[in-house]
Amino acid sequence: MLSGDLVAVWEVALSDGVYRIEFAHGTTTGKRVIYVNGQEVVRKDWMFKLVGKETFTVGSSDTKATIVIEAISGFAYEYTLQIAGKSLQKFIDNRAQTTKTWLLKVDGQDYRVVLEKDTMDVWCNGQKMDTMGEFVDDGTETNFTVGEHDCCIKATSSGKKKNGIVHYLLLDGEQIPASTH
Predict the structure, then answer these.
(1) Per-position pLDDT tens, the chain of length 181
(2) Nearest 5°: phi and psi at 109?
(3) The pTM is what?
């Protein structure tokens, strides 16, 4: 797959999954190769300009990603990843505010459930889920199923202006702790 030209590896968490982005840069051959989850998505051979940008898409929603190649001194290069027009760190910080993720094991299978807070879309293992939302006395409930199990994401007020709305995932009525991914 990748030769000794591998210069950077990033992990990017999107709603439909976590993606591993690998970048190979042949500074003597001018080669640029980008892999997403082991699949080659960009290959350019014999590039005479060693600095610049490579743009590609990631995930089922075709999120724009760009690798920026900059010379820092002599033949040393710096590689940065931008996602949706933001630096990777800003993208991660923004996702922490706009999404909530839970990792759970149900009937021996691993699941990754992601709530997009701005749209209330729910994703499970890369699939956008069919949900039913309803207003209840203490907030909202978004209901869906994982396998044969009932799930509910409850959104309630934290009672503190700074914290705003708190989201909980219930699996068959039991609360599941949130993940940091």
Answers:
(1) 455 789 999 999 999 999 999 999 987 788 899 999 999 999 998 877 788 999 999 999 899 999 999 999 877 899 999 999 999 999 999 999 999 999 999 999 999 999 999 999 999 999 999 999 999 998 999 999 998 999 999 999 888 877 788 999 999 999 998 887 5
(2) -110, 140
(3) 0.84
d(CA 181, CA 177): 12
21: closest CA among 78, 98, 83, 111?
83
Closest CA to 34 of 21, 47, 45: 21
What are the percentages of helix, strand and coil residues in the chain, rounded to 5? 5, 60, 30
